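Morning. Coffee machine broken again, so started the prediction first thing and wrote up yesterday's gels while waiting. Chain of 308 residues, entered below exactly as on the submission form.
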Amino acid sequence: MAENKPETKEEPGKKDAKPKKAKKQSSSGPDLATILGFIVAFGGIGAGFMMEHGNPKDIAQITAALIVLGGTLGAVMITTPLNVVMRAAARLPSLFFPSVPVMDAIIDEIIGYAGVARKSGIVSLEAQASNIKDPFLKKALGLAVDGIETSNIRDIMELEMSIGEHRDEAEAKVFEAAGGYAPTIGIIGAVLGLIQVMKNLANIEEVGRGIAVAFVATIYGVATANIVFLPAANKLKARAAERMRARELMLEGVLSIAEGLNQNLIRMKLSAYSEKHEKPAREKAKKKADAKAGAKADAPPNAAPAEG
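Came back before lunch.
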């Protein structure tokens, strides 16, 4: 009967580990930086154009957009496997509504698992491991519960991290490729427009209007490359780096549980990944430094009589 008590205490521990901080491991919401970036970029260009007495109809050319976007998409599909293009397209919503890893929530979840493992043994985490939402953490903790050596766990999970990194890089390169092709496709569109202009050389008014329309394709190509495609590629790389950092945190946490470290030591070890946990440490260090500085400031009056 006494042995059943740790199991009843395991339930609160289970709740600590499982508060689906797995669900709250990542915060999803609108990315204001991306949204405001598009507004500022297009708004600034549009405002400048209007200040020069431009007419929005002058740059609203469906044919130019069709040439640039269609040509760019076709070029990307030629250079990149279709499954990678589809994965990259599926990433587009994450530019505006990302799922950002919350390091503090991940640390708290891992500390919860560590508490259960210390009380009842790592095997007691088997049921909780099967309910973890994050596939990376689920696999790593499952390996630890199965009694796999920590060195082998590290090798297996680092291989998975490497494969995930390559996938993320391939998806970002799709947008990089689009950013490289779009300006050139825009020039092709401008040349096609100029060919049509040459047919109307007898009418000077038509020539002027035709040249203006022809260069809209160049604007579309350069604008989409430098405001949409290349920034999107860099944003996806930044998000991939955040996910990689979260996975490193998960791996270090699981390895610490497998090694039998206590919760306080694990929290200290993982605090490097969290600004929230670093802040008190920095403040504590600052207080110690201030105390030492104050002690030194009190020393000269005491030392003066000794010199005399």
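Residues 282-308 form one domain. Going to sketch it on the whiteboard this afternoon.
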